[in-house]
Design a protein that fits this description.
Elements: E1 3-8, H1 12-20, E2 26-32, E3 36-38, H2 43-47, E4 57-59, H3 60-64, E5 70-74, E6 77-81, E7 86-89, E8 92-95, E9 98-101, E10 105-107, H4 113-118, E11 120-121, H5 125-142, H6 149-156, E12 158-161, H7 165-185, H8 188-192, E13 198-201, H9 213-225, E14 229-231, E15 236-240, E16 243-246, E17 251-253, E18 257-259, E19 263-265, E20 282-284, E21 296-298, E22 303-305, H10 319-337, E23 352-357, E24 360-365, E25 369-372, H11 373-387, H12 391-407, E26 424-425, E27 433-435
Parallel strand pairs: 1-2, 1-9, 2-5, 9-21, 11-18, 12-13, 12-18, 13-14, 20-22
Antiparallel strand pairs: 3-4, 6-7, 7-8, 10-19, 15-16, 16-17, 23-24, 24-25, 26-27
Helix pairs in contact: 1-10, 5-6
Length: 440
């Protein structure tokens, strides 16, 4: 009998576990709420109309079709029953010998209900498409009341909450679009001499907190030169009546709040609270096994591991940690069947980077290398291209980037909103549907 491994989540961590287990003695099932993998670092380019969703995504079934011991199942976890080695999904039940959680994170609104209801998140492809549609609709709305300057200013002002890479990159992209795309597409705004304002707000004393002081200073200076208004040491505390309320007593009138300020891990029914640590991350040992559970593992953003001497408080929730943990766990599953000692995880920090705009970026490469400007921008382009999961993604992405670089524009700004799928019913009875989309 083959040992059954179920992997929940097909992001960087989960997919690398699945693809790097080379032992045919395992039967692997990859479970995800979507039928495709996507590349989160480029979501903001989908949201701003510089890339299509297909440029950063690829279907699981096509990717995995040549692995005979690996299959895919669409669904979302409803309940885990550890004592029975069973999980309940929205699409059925599965039994396992080993269970791996690799579900990543979800948006954290820190209990602020108004922000959760009205802010624009940036975690999924659906979020990116909703954001693209929303901003294009806002711009079209703005053209209809150019005689109302106060209203127009509120519609065109954008607040980005969060000064990490996502917040910096979306702010820089929107600032560049102001001076190129918007002026060409919406000449109505030139007549009333109203310029939209972009604010980036963060609760810490600097942007890009995990990066070097040089990168933080370079980013601050470049964003200011691009017209972005930076507010530090202040957090968003509420969003009421089109006013973003800040902890320092300020408020900003706007209809547009982009939320890039925090993430949290997912809770799972059936996994007791004592197995979770900071940020609701599952506490794991040096081999990514959840402490206290004999055959359940966690990798990537949903895991907190304090056994690495270089990261006693847990690893950063970044793609490289997920990639490396996924490969290490896969290698340990291979070693397990060969009765070889398991390899403890040790993170190899390969650096961090952020793009600010055209020919503007920052990069920190261990141990002490810092790059900025065009060189860092080229590094960012190269790393992100090779990180895309398929050559087709790389070709379409580099084509769109070349067009955007030389024209300072892109032709992907369409408002496309698919209608909700309807339930088809049988010809013999209207009581039982033939097929219904799972609630995932």
């Amino acid at each position: 009998m083959k040992k059954r491994i179920i992997i929940i989540g097909g992001g960087f961590a989960g997919l690398n576990v699945a693809r790097n287990i080379d032992n045919k003695e395992y039967q692997i099932t990859l479970v995800d709420r979507n039928n495709y993998i996507f590349f989160p670092p480029l979501l903001y380019q989908v949201a701003t109309g510089f890339l299509e969703p297909s440029s950063i995504s690829y279907p699981y079934r096509k990717m995995l079709r040549n692995k005979s011991n690996l299959n895919f199942k669409l669904g979302e976890v409803l309940n885990v029953i550890p004592e029975q080695n069973k999980i309940i999904l929205t699409t059925g039940e599965l039994e396992y010998d080993y269970l791996v959680f690799a579900t990543g994170t979800e948006t954290n609104y820190f209990g602020m209900e108004n922000v959760e209801k009205k802010a624009i998140p940036m975690k999924t492809i659906n979020d990116a498409l909703e954001m693209r549609n929303y901003f294009l609709r806002q711009l079209e709305r703005a053209t209809t009341f150019t005689s109302y300057k106060n209203r127009l200013k509120k519609v065109l002002t954008i607040v980005v909450a969060g000064g990490g890479p996502t917040g910096v990159e979306i702010s820089g992209m929107l600032a560049e679009m102001q001076t190129s795309v918007f002026r060409k597409d919406y000449p109505e705004f030139e007549k009333v001499r109203i310029q939209s304002h972009i604010y980036i707000v963060d609760g810490s004393a600097q942007l890009l907190s995990p990066m070097s002081k040089k990168s933080q200073d370079d980013t601050y200076r470049k964003l200011e030169e691009m017209g972005v208004k930076i507010i530090l040491n202040a957090q968003v505390t509420d969003y009421v009546d089109d006013k973003v309320i800040l902890s320092n007593g300020q408020f900003i009138e706007t209809e547009n709040l982009i939320w890039a300020a925090g993430v949290t891990s997912q809770l799972f029914n059936g996994i007791p609270s004592e197995y979770y640590g900071r940020g609701r991350r599952l506490i794991t040992d040096a081999h990514n096994k959840i402490e206290g559970l004999k055959n359940i593992y966690a990798v990537g953003d949903t895991s907190i591991q304090t056994t690495d001497s270089d990261f006693p408080g847990g690893h950063p929730q970044v793609a490289q940690v997920a990639l490396q943990q996924g490969k290490n766990l896969a290698n340990n599953f291979n070693r397990l069947l060969r009765n070889k000692p398991l390899t403890p995880f040790k993170y190899n920090d390969r650096g961090s980077m952020a793009i600010i705009g055209r020919n503007k970026a920052v990069a920190d490469i261990p141990p002490n290398l810092h790059f900025k400007g065009f060189i860092a921008w080229v590094l960012w382009i190269f790393i992100h291209l090779i990180s895309l999961v398929h050559y087709r993604n790389r070709i379409t992405t580099v084509y769109n980037w070349i067009v955007a670089y030389f024209t300072k524009d892109q032709a992907l700004r369409m408002m496309i909103r698919p209608t909700a799928p309807s339930v088809k019913t049988s010809a013999t009875t209207s009581a039982e549907p033939i097929y219904q989309y799972p609630e995932v």
